[in-house]
Amino acid sequence: MAEKILKKDDIGRLYSELEKEYKFYAPTKVKGNIAFKKISNAEEIELEYLNSKVPPKDVLFPQKETIFEYRYEGKDVIIEERKDLEDKLLIFGVRLCDAYSFKLLEDFFASGDFQDDIFLKKRENATIIGIGCNSPRQSCFCTSVGGHPFQKESTDVFLSDLGDTYLVEAISEKGESLLKKLSWLTDAKKADLTKSKELAKQAEEALTTKFDFDLVTKVLDENFEHPVWQEISESCIGCSSCTFLCPTCTCFDVIDENDEYNNRGRRIRIWDTCQSCLYTLETSGHNPRPAKIQRCRNRIMHKFSYYPSNYDCLGCVGCGRCITACPVNNELRLIIDKILEIEEKSGEKVSA
Amino acid sequence: MVKFMGLETENKEIENNLREIARELLKEKKVDVIIGYKKGTLPLLSQPIIIDSEEDIDKLIWNNLCYVNLAKYLVPRVPRFVDPEKGNLTVGVVSKGCVGRALIHLASENKINLDEIKIIGIPCNGVVNRQRIEMEIGEKEILEVSVLGNNIIVKGKNFEKEFPFDEYMNDLCKVCKIRKPPLVSKVPDLCVGECEEYSNIVDEFTDIEEFDSKTPKEKWQHISEALSVCTRCYACREACPMCYCNLCFVDQNKPVWFGKTTDLPDIIVYHLIRAMHMAGRCVACGACSLVCPMGIDLNIINRKLEKIVKERFDFTSGLDPDALPPMVNFKMEDAQEFMLEED
Amino acid sequence: MTEPIVETKQSENKEWEPKIIAFLCNWCSYAGADLAGVSRIQYPSNIRIVRVPCSGRINAYFIIKSLTDGWDGVIVSGCHPGDCHYISGNLVARRRFAILKELLEFFGIEAGRINFMWASAAEGERFAVLVRKATEIVKKLGPNTKFDKKW
User: What confidence score (pLDDT) does residue B253 get?
Assistant: First the structure.
């Protein structure tokens, strides 16, 4: 299908035509931060943004989610499954790193013997409209993890910001059928395509942070007990900003909420984090990860060592949220540098 | 406040003095390690650093972005502060007023032995409210932040903006009366560098008058709106030097006291009880607000606590290591106007 | 499985009555309530009593948990200052109550939902009067909805 052009003024039209069919999620300003919310007005959409504070994984895997509800009728317990899973979702204006995170989440929730029906169902019903990232931040490093500021593959429809207009490309079948509904879009000219390619190139060049993650994975595998972890975890205060704002973190905790006065209850899941001491605490009182050093190490190992061996890809999309969120500036770039230093030092020893 | 010189010269002077003292302490083996601040890799941040050799001393800095309360690293001690053979090491702590207060208050709770630390006092000139600046800049990337004269200059791609420091200071710093760490008469050589003796702290609490005069409905609206974005990551708790419990009340699960979800009632209850636990202990460092990833301003709650404690129990935390904290203490004549009485 | 609690909310046509949880000190107020009972002094049936060893036993958790669980009001009653069975439990508690009450007010939550009082074992009449008063206050505030969760 040929590429189309969407005028910036026509976003409202696009919204009003699609919101009837889809639950329309878009970046919008909430208390000074960008967040993906179900919007009720096209004017709420903020497409000129760096990236959202809380990643859009929040739409498919919200911080608090009901698994099922139950109620008593006499002595019977009646379980009510979720009914809203068939709703069609549209996630509009997602940055490409976050769009790629949906693939990682899907890999995780679909792997093994137990499929996570809630997430997978929602993912199946979600259409993702990604938007190219014209000016990546200093803390971004998506090209190092196999991404790109204009990586189209993980979206259904891809937009690139050309100034006054957006270049619209359908990537998947879902995207094509969505674009068919918007027959009023004009065809793109050749110049638009070249401009988009140019912007992609500029964006790639703007990314200054680069890592060799193959090497990182190798070093990590060999240095589980290395003293460098002590150094890395030293200034960490154990807040969970990095994991709560991470687009690929998937851990959750299951809780039952009882509303006994109304004879009902629900089972919910909420985000959990490996940075909390409670995360690994066993009923016996034993805690296999009792100190910050183990918890810090787990986060890094999980993303850059366990993910490659379990899913054959890195568990990081390079959005840089953990870098900007860390209140004590114990950030990923420094951690990676320290890890790579091990390799350099051991190299020196051998050559000496 | 009248400033005779620009902030950058003031900071430079503090920094130079600080390095000199630190060098001397390490040289004369009065301390084993020093914890201080180092330049951050992001424009609005600084980074805590632990140094034990004289070579690294030039990494120590002081600027208006040093907002982490370093007392946090002493309770419990990070592994670097404990020697496997010698036991607890003597730690020099680069202390602005609130860090010094935190250390002294923790000593009053028997969490710190003042003989094992040295307070390297610096005359703090306030820290920047980084969240407020970030929000006002909005969706543009901040690349460089510098302090010049009385302004904070924020630079990025295609923009430059000036913020008057006096206004964009953290709210608690604006009303801070204890800029240098307090002197402790019992341990005279505890403090090196600039410290001060405080006798009677007078505070009018004019900054929260406006909020206090609101109707309950307005208060609820303000508080519930501000807290509604809380993600329950507990960064506020983890950054707080006074939060050292092994198991926080929200994490307790035998029994489960309060919900762990991000529903508004659960969020409110968390912040309410956390505030309750801070009564008479908060040292007004503002770290909780400054580390919040969602930029929630908790300062106003802390100020209210300070006010209640000052007015009811005439107590200022972190001045005297021998003073009994007000919540474990009592006086027969404590005000009880809130108790129900017969007409 | 335990029997589901079948206590239903007040039907709409009746006048709304608040439900109040009362934490009473074993040594004074609990005996005071008892005295009110045996002396046939009427006091509102809105309160449900929990006996505690001392008002100093009252953690702020108890009070806030009661509110989140849907109680419309909380009463804490202990011995008069100086009369504490454990010498100073009530005096330490008093400081706690002061802070809690002011904080609730600051958060915009109706501070009238929590009421503190002193009533000795000999003051059955006073206990009844104060419970009546507290019930009036809570009744005026209406149902406690600030802590209701969305379903």
Answer: 82
> What are the residue boundaries of the structural domains of chain A, listed by start?
4-206, 213-351
B334 vs C95, C109, C115: nearest CB: C95
pLDDT 10s digits, A244-285:
999 999 999 999 988 888 889 999 999 999 999 889 999 898
Distance from CA of C33 to the nearest CA of B (A): 16
Contacts of B233 in chain A (CB under 8 A): 239-241, 244, 273
Nearest CA in chain A to B132: A32
Closest CA to A89 of A24, A144, A32: A24
For C83, the closest chain B residue by CA position comes to B332
Q: Rounded to whole angstroms, how far apart are CA atoms B150 and B148?
A: 6
In Å, how far are A34, A309, C5 from A305, measured between CA atoms?
A: 31, 6, 51
Tell which wins on pLDDT, A352 or A90.
Answer: A90
pLDDT tens sequence across A181-192 = 999 999 999 999
pTM (2 d.p.): 0.94
The parent domain of residue C132 ranges over: 20-46+55-140
- Note whether B276 contacts C88, CB cutoff 8 Å: no
Q: Do B231 and A238 touch (CB under 8 A)?
A: no
Structure tokens at B111: 């969490």
Which residues 60-119 of chain A have a CB within 8 Å of chain B?
A: 63-64
Q: What percent of chain A has pLDDT over 70?
A: 99
The complex's ipTM works out to 0.91
- Report the domain count for chain C: 1
Question: Among residues of chain B, what percentage have pLDDT more than 90?
Answer: 88
Query: What is the residue extent of each domain of chain B?
Result: 206-328
> What value does the mean pLDDT take over residues B203-213?
92
Q: Indicate yes or no: CB of A276 within 8 angstroms of CB of B68.
A: no
| Confidence bin at C8 (pLDDT 50/70/90) | very low
Chains in contact with A, counting 3 or more C-beta pairs less than 8 Å apart as contact? B, C
Does residue B331 sit at the C interface (CB-CB below 8 Å)?
Answer: yes
Residue pLDDT, tens place only, B284-329:
999 999 999 999 999 999 999 999 999 999 999 999 999 999 999 9
Which residues of chain B have a CB within 8 Å of the CB of A284? none
What is the least distance, in Å, from the CA of C31 to any CA of chain B? 18
Measured between CA atoms, the residue of chain C closest to residue A268 is C151
**Which residues of chain C from 61 to 120 reach within 8 Å of chain A, CB to CB?**
70
- Does residue C147 form part of some domain? no
* Contact indicator for B229, B190 with CB cutoff of 8 Å: no
Q: Which pLDDT value is given to residue A345?
A: 85
Q: Give the residue among B93, B138, B136, B88 at the shortest CA–CA distance from B116.
A: B88
Given C88, C106, C146, which is nearest B330 (Cβ)?
A: C88
DSSP string, chain C: -PPPP-PPPPPTTSPP---EEEEEETTTHHHHHHHHHHTT----TTEEEEEES-GGG--HHHHHHHHHTT-SEEEEEEPPTT--TTSSHHHHHHHHHHHHHHHHHHHTS-GGGEEEEE--TT-HHHHHHHHHHHHHHHHHH-S--TTPPP-
Q: B60 pLDDT exceeds 80?
A: yes
How far apart CA C147 and CA C101 sit, in angstroms, is 16
CA torsion A200-A202-A208-A213 (nearest 10°) is 30
For the cut 90, the answer to whether the pLDDT of residue C9 exceeds it is no
C70 vs A contacts (CB less than 8 Å): 261
